[in-house]
Design brief:
single chain, mainly alpha
């Protein structure tokens, strides 16, 4: 399991919650921030997660696929990540 997956598991973020985040992020990655706050993730933890995702987006996207996030949602999220890279 990768570092992001380990961290998400520690936060008790299951596939359903990951799908909620992906849906929020597919049109605008910053839209997921409010969803993250609703889930009780601290800003420090969010910074750690974002650093890991931005340093290795492919690993994060692979994990999202394994979590069952639909391919069209992942494609939209990939496009949003490219805008910030």
């Amino acid at each position: 399991m990768n570092d992001v997956a380990n961290m998400l598991q520690e936060l008790n973020l299951d596939s359903a919650k990951l799908q909620e985040l992906a849906t929020a992020a597919q049109s605008n990655p910053f839209a997921a921030f409010s969803k993250i706050q609703e889930m009780g993730i601290s800003s420090d933890m969010l910074q750690k997660i974002m650093k890991m995702v931005m340093s290795n987006p492919g690993e994060f996207l692979s994990m999202a696929q394994e979590a069952g996030i639909p391919e069209d949602t992942l494609s939209n999220v990939k496009e949003q990540i490219k805008r910030f890279m």
